[in-house]
Amino acid sequence: MLEGDPVPFGGIGGASRIVTPSDVRNQVFSVVRLREGYDLAEVDGFLGRVETALSRLVRENEELKARLSSTPDCTALEAAPSPGARAVRIVEVAEEAADRIVAMANKEAETIVAQARRRADGLGRDALEKITELQRQAQETRREVMERRLQDLRLIVADFDAVLRQCFHEHTEHLLALLDGREPPGPVADASTREAAPQL
């Protein structure tokens, strides 16, 4: 393709500059993953048509310049539409398409960020609820364990009280028997009594 004279350009690629068919051919757009956007194939096809149109306009401009330099009377040429104006218009259309792509990308990025924040807030609430539930379950388990231990302690105290009462009763009987001059009851006294008793 013919490169020719550059065409004024002021949007794609940065600050105001001039664009050539080579610029259009080499223009690369950022690929955004995991979300909707312009079809890359359609964008590439459109840029290809822009490149072709620019090349044709540059070639026509060169031809017109050559004819103008060789023709003394250029009134008819001055009245004809300017190829440069047509090229500028094509570039403006390309700029508008690029602006739409950027605007849509920004909007989709904002939407993704908002969704991510909402999801994070939801996860935070879920985590807090789970932590609260776990704390409640832990407190309930601790309460049940304490109740079981307290019940076991009550049973131990009750058994100890019964044994203590029995021992006190036996000790009292033993003392009364000694005071009355009787053989004190008990496992030892009973055994000696049985050994001393006459055999029938």
TrEMBL record:
Protein family per UniProt: Belongs to the DivIVA family.
Example GO biological process: cell division
InterPro entries in the cross-refs: DivIVA_domain, DivIVA_fam
Compartmental location: Cytoplasm
Organism: Microbispora oryzae
GO cellular component assignments: cytoplasm
Coiled coil in keyword set: yes
Protein name per its UniProtKB record: Cell wall synthesis protein Wag31
Annotated stretches, region: Disordered: 180-200
Origin: domain of life: Bacteria
Pfam family, one: DivIVA
Coiled coil: 124-156
Keywords from the named record: Cell cycle, Cell division, Coiled coil, Cytoplasm
